[in-house]
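Hey, quick one: can you model this chain's 3D structure?
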Amino acid sequence: MDIEPGLAEAAQLFKVLGSESRLGLLRLIGHEPRTVGALAEASGQSQPLVSQHLRTLRQAGLVRAIRRGKEVEYHLADIHVSHVVADALAHVREPGEEPKQSGTEN
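Sure thing. Here's the predicted structure for all 106 residues.
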């Protein structure tokens, strides 16, 4: 049961984004469109593994493939993808404050 329309789809999106490898690939593609070979080289992952991650990202609608002659370049599907990843990174990089416990002074 959806409390709000789109929550189930958003949860699925976060499952796809729950992979450090896929987030890294999205960051690389966000800087410039790249081929599987270029992504494998830049990420240090094998080409078959990069292809598998790209398939998952395409199925989730996060990247799109554009054929350029004999090669296929991968692009972010839209700017929102870049924002979601950047916002998540900004969130985890922020210095956190320890929660204050009631009744104690800091």
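One thing worth noting: Helices lie at 7-16, 20-31, 36-43, 47-59, 79-93.
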